[in-house]
Design a protein that fits this description.
CATH class: Mainly Alpha
GO molecular function, one term: metal ion binding
Keywords: Membrane, Metal-binding, Signal, Transmembrane, Transmembrane helix
CATH topology: Glycosyltransferase
Largest sheet: 2 strands, antiparallel
Number of helices: 16
Distance between the termini: 87 Å
InterPro entries: SQ_cyclase_C, Terpenoid_cyclase/PrenylTrfase
Pfam family, one: SQHop_cyclase_C
Strand order of the largest sheet: 1-8
Strand content: under 5%
Protein name: Squalene cyclase C-terminal domain-containing protein
């Protein structure tokens, strides 16, 4: 799933996150030979860049929908893990692991999927171990180890730690925790008021101001709110997300207080307030802006914003985005044939406690037949809804019609006889 939004910052990191066509940044690179879709994998498109990503999202979403995936689907994901614990985006059957192809995004979502499935503790522990080993010295994570960290990858890694019940505050390099790494990318009180709480994709090596990024903000927000996939969405707050509290007097500008990192305690609410404002201003969706191209709806960022707001207990602020995705999401999912997009839409619907039957049915159809399915999860997706009378409603109506007809005939006959005797 390639996008120009992230290719400019870290070649393939965005490829797993947006579901859009490849951007011009790869125009000079020879196109790889499309990989054959292996048995057990959800979706029919080339898995080279998103195989582990879409499989992990599909397994997570279906498990939350009480669908027990086929052994081949689970086995494909576990078989992609390398001996050191990391996952690549995709590894052809029989191919050796290459540490240079392992990435934090694939590893993070695979860990969350296996936690959701249950029964894969050894693989989860190895995945968490890989994340710990490949954390940057500033506490962040890069898409590929050895590169500068970014907010999306750091947020996904923190999601995986939460899923594995590993406190991110205790996962550190050189004294910098995962929360410290996440804070590197969040705009604080030194930023303009309408940008506070947002996340930048990466920091400026020259020390310049952080630039808000829609996808980075949306994905980092789930981590800042203490969440992971799947989002339960059971906590409800009465108030809107609390914006970052800043002293805006002129004397405070440029002070150490205004330039201080956003604390972890305030981080989730601050980015939630930013996302809620952006959604309200953008017609209930976030926007992808790429240099040289017209702005377009950012389906991925909108979905992750809805997940984050649901996680932080603000379903009212997420509702508009959930509704928008319900109306427009088929464009993103290509009518339910894109496994990664369909799985993400299902995760959003689950977090918002919306009807999930159709999406569950679509996603189930994109992979191997499941071992077991909760009938209530897919009933409306596979057959017309039955009446509350247990399915005999049409026969009851026919019977009533016949009785009325017979009764009417008798009355007419009696009336004729009565007229004859008068």
């Amino acid at each position: 799933m390639l996008t120009a939004a992230r290719l400019g910052a870290a070649a393939l990191s965005a490829a797993l996150l947006t579901g859009l066509a490849a951007g011009p940044a790869l125009a000079d690179s020879p196109a790889p030979t499309p990989a054959a879709v292996p048995d057990g994998l959800y979706g029919k498109s080339d898995p080279t860049y998103d195989g582990v990503w879409r499989q992990s999202l599909a397994l997570t979403a279906l498990t939350a929908a009480k669908v027990t995936p086929a052994d081949s689907a689970v086995g494909w994901l576990t078989g992609q893990q390398c001996e050191d614990g990391g996952w690549p985006s995709y590894r052809a059957a029989g191919a050796a692991c290459d540490p240079k192809t392992e990435d934090s995004n694939a590893t993070a979502v695979a860990v969350q999927a296996l936690v959701a499935l249950g029964g894969h503790q050894e693989a989860v522990d190895k995945g968490v171990g890989w994340l710990k080993a490949n954390q940057n010295a500033d506490g962040s994570w890069a898409y590929n180890p050895g590169s500068p960290g970014d907010a999306d990858s750091t947020g996904l890694a923190v999601n995986a730690l939460f899923a594995a019940k590993t406190d991110p505050a205790g996962v550190a390099k050189a004294g910098r925790s995962a929360f410290d790494g996440l804070a590197l990318f969040q705009l604080g009180c030194a930023a303009p008021a309408d940008q506070r709480g947002a996340f930048a994709y990466q920091t400026d090596p020259a020390g310049g101001a952080l630039t808000p990024n829609a996808l980075a903000s949306a994905q980092a927000a789930l981590a800042a709110s203490g969440g992971h996939l799947p989002v339960a969405g059971t906590v409800h707050a009465d108030a809107a997300p609390k914006a970052l509290a800043c002293a805006d007097a002129p004397a405070a500008q440029g002070s150490s207080a205004s330039s201080a990192p956003v604390s972890h305690a305030e981080s989730g609410e601050a980015v939630g307030a930013y996302l809620a404002a952006q959604l309200a201003a953008g017609g209930d969706h976030l926007t992808l802006t790429t240099p040289g191209a017209a702005p377009t709806p950012d389906y991925t960022a909108t979905a992750w914003a809805a997940l984050a707001l649901s996680q932080s207990g603000h379903p009212q602020q997420a509702a508009g985005a959930v509704d928008w995705l319900g109306k427009e999401g088929a464009t993103w999912s290509k009518g339910g044939t894109d496994a990664g997009a369909t799985a993400t839409l299902l995760l959003v619907a689950q977090a918002a406690h919306r009807d999930t039957a159709a999406l569950t049915g679509q996603l189930t159809a994109l992979g191997p037949a499941p071992k077991a399915t909760d009938a209530s999860a897919t009933a409306t997706a596979t057959a017309p809804a039955k009446k509350k009378d247990g399915g005999i409603g049409q026969y009851w109506l026919i019977g009533v019609g016949l009785l009325i007809g017979v009764g009417g005939g008798l009355l007419l006959s009696l009336q004729r006889k009565r007229n004859t005797h008068l």
